[in-house]
């Protein structure tokens, strides 16, 4: 039983719970400028992943992310499925052969996953999408991990940054998805994908600050 994989499972469960708690906010944002099925797809994906617990427990982190990515590809509908799936598959490749990733390894894997979303979605910062949260947070995590920032300070910074970048989408014009057709009518509305990512990042940071007994692989600031 790999303690890093158990931490992945903890994070999946925390994200699912956080998404349910924030259901009203995410749904209202999606109704305003989205395609109307964002929350349904995200909730379905989260529920499926939590139900995979027994399948994931015996796996190493890379194999767990591989299985997660393939499951999401067949579970989440719309454009979100391939995008989120590509993130987990890229994280799997980044952690291949690494049984006990350190904090810098996790940061590098997350950055690789975000890069995969960016490439597949052909989007970047400033286009009012989930990437307006994911890209700056992934870069910040990598920089903080490389600097040896203590975990509590690192998690607080990532949580704060995720919220700030999520809120910043309110003043952006959308160039992707349904919101792009709304033009200036999308101004004043937070992107629902950015909100979902902010919720997920906050939930994962909370998990990182609650170490499992005899588990230091993800909380360590070592390379």
Present the secondary structure layout.
Layout: H1 3-21, H2 23-33, H3 38-51, H4 53-56, H5 61-73, H6 80-94, H7 103-121, H8 131-146, H9 151-168, H10 192-208
Helix pairs in contact: 1-3, 1-10, 2-10, 5-6, 6-7, 7-8, 8-9, 8-10, 9-10
How would you describe this protein?
This protein is mainly alpha-helical. The protein has one domain (3-208): Serine Threonine Protein Phosphatase 5, Tetratricopeptide repeat (Alpha Horseshoe), CATH 1.25.40. Helix content is 65%, strand content 0%. The longest helix has 19 residues, at 3-21. The two termini are 22 Å apart. 47% of the residues are buried. Mean pLDDT is 89; it is low at 214-223.
Question: How would you concisely characterize the structure shown here?
Answer:
The protein is mainly α and 223 residues long. It has helices at residues 3-21, 23-33, 38-51, 53-56, 61-73, 80-94, 103-121, 131-146, 151-168, 192-208. Mean pLDDT is 89; it is low at 214-223.
State the main characteristics.
223 residues, mainly alpha, disordered C terminus, Serine Threonine Protein Phosphatase 5, Tetratricopeptide repeat
Using the CA coordinates, give the radius of gyration: 17 Å
Text of the CATH class: Mainly Alpha
Give the strand content.
Answer: under 5%
Query: Could you name the ranges where pLDDT drops below 50 across 5 or more consecutive residues?
Result: 214-223
CATH topology: the name is: Serine Threonine Protein Phosphatase 5, Tetratricopeptide repeat
Number of helical segments with 4 or more residues: 10
Order of helices and strands: HHHHHHHHHH
- Architecture, CATH level 2? Alpha Horseshoe
């Amino acid at each position: 039983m790999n303690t890093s994989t158990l931490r992945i499972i903890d994070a999946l469960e925390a994200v699912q719970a956080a998404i349910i708690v924030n259901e009203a906010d995410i749904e209202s944002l999606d109704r305003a400028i989205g395609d109307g099925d964002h929350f349904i797809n995200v909730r379905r994906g989260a529920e499926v992943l939590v139900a995979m617990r027994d399948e994931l427990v015996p796996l190493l982190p890379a194999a767990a992310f591989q299985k997660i990515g393939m499951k999401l590809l067949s579970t989440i509908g719309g454009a979100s499925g391939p995008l989120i799936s590509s993130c987990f598959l890229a994280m799997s490749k980044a952690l291949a052969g690494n049984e006990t990733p350190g904090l810098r390894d996790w940061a590098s894997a997350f950055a690789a996953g975000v890069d995969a979303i960016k490439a597949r979605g052909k989007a970047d910062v400033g286009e009012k999408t989930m990437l307006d949260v994911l890209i700056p947070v992934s870069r910040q995590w990598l920089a903080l991990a490389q600097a040896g920032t203590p975990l509590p300070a690192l998690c607080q910074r990532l949580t704060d940054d995720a919220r700030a970048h999520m809120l910043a989408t309110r003043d952006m014009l959308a160039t992707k998805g349904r919101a792009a057709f709304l033009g200036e009518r999308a101004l004043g509305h937070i992107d629902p994908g950015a909100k979902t990512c902010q919720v997920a990042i906050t939930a994962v940071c909370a998990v990182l600050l609650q170490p499992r007994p005899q588990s230091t692989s993800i909380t360590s600031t070592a390379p």
